[in-house]
Amino acid sequence: MSVKNACCDILSQLTHLVNQLSEHEYSKPIESLGHSSIGQHVRHTLEFFICLEQGFGTGSINYDKRSHDKLVETDKYLALSTLNRINEFVTSNTQNKVLSLEMNYSLDQEILISVETNYLRELIYNIEHAVHHMAIIKIGVREVVPHINLPSTFGIASSTLRYQERLQNASFQE
């Protein structure tokens, strides 16, 4: 599977989940998630993709400069529209463009560090970041909307799935 296809699969899984949630379920604070909501985790995930999309245009990505848009975390229809736009961005960009990644690890100063990266590397980072948050989202779904069936692969890295399959195959051979 290509990086682009893997990314589109992740976005599709998120879209499918958000479509199944009511507005209330999407934005409800969940105790086991430290009172964050499914919508907050979706928003956080999408904003990394938005930073990549913007950085693709400017040549420079800075994930610290996310907008923290409260509407995306409370309005499931805006989240769905954003998911659709990001999917279109991913499917339409085939060029592995060289980019600059900026970050600031200082808590009290604006000291930017810049490293060279590229579009595919950052797309991979966004996939891994999304899977991590999808695992957290799965916990929230089980608590708030246990009637929703998620794919068994939701929130699990492909490397983990392959490892689990190898273990299962090995136990059948014993």
Total strands: the figure is 3
Residue stretches low in confidence (pLDDT < 50, at least 5 long) are: none
**Gap between N and C termini:** 30 Å
The global form is globular
Helix-strand topology string:
HHHEHHEEHH
Cα Rg: 17 Å
- What is the CATH H-level superfamily? dinb family like domain
The largest sheet has its strands arranged as 1-2-3
> What's the level 1 CATH class?
Mainly Alpha
- The CATH topology name reads Four Helix Bundle (Hemerythrin (Met), subunit A)
Strand content: 5-15%
What does this structure look like?
By secondary structure, the protein is mainly alpha-helical. It has helices at 3-20, 23-27, 38-58, 70-74, 76-92, 119-144, 158-173, and strands spanning 60-61, 98-103, 113-118. The chain has a single domain (3-173), classed as Four Helix Bundle (Hemerythrin (Met), subunit A). The mean pLDDT is 93.
Q: Topology of this protein?
A:
Blueprint lengths: L2 H18 L2 H5 L10 H21 L1 E2 L8 H5 L1 H17 L5 E6 L9 E6 H26 L13 H16 L1
Parallel strand pairs: 1-2
Antiparallel strand pairs: 2-3
